[in-house]
Amino acid sequence: QVQLVESGGGLVQPGGSLRLSCAASGITLEYFYIGWFRQVPGKELEGVSCISDADRRTYYTDSVKGRFTISRDNAKNTVYLQMDSLKPEDTAVYYCSTSCPAFGYSGNYWGKGILVTVSS
Q1: Residue 119: what are its φ and ψ, rounded to 5°?
Q2: Nearest-CA neighbor of 37 among 104, 78, 83, 94?
Q3: Which of 114, 112, 115, 108 is nearest to 34 (CA)?
Q4: Four-residue CA torsion sign, 31, 32, 33, 39
Q5: What pLDDT, on a 0 to 100 scale, did the predictor assign at position 60?
Q6: Tens digit of pLDDT for each residue in 15-34?
Q7: Cα–Cα nearest to 97, from 10, 29, 39
């Protein structure tokens, strides 16, 4: 059974940092494009960042460029999203997935999501 499990979310003050992790079981993330998405209640799902498989190309939506960094640790079968200089508008439920629309890659696996709240 394939599982993607997000962790590392929580409450942080504006300007702070969090690192989200997406740990996988049942698949080897090394062979997949991995995307991070976020959703605010009542709004559409937004693609935040994506990393390709072998050559580790990255994509960031404009609103997070320069603040977020996506990376992968194949030995730990985990993909990370380092989020710095967080803003209240980054508040959302964050999901990892084997989808990467920015690179035209559609996958089937999604995590259950984790809440990030940026507030003073």
Answers
A1: -160, 150
A2: 94
A3: 108
A4: negative
A5: 98
A6: 999 999 999 999 999 999 99
A7: 29
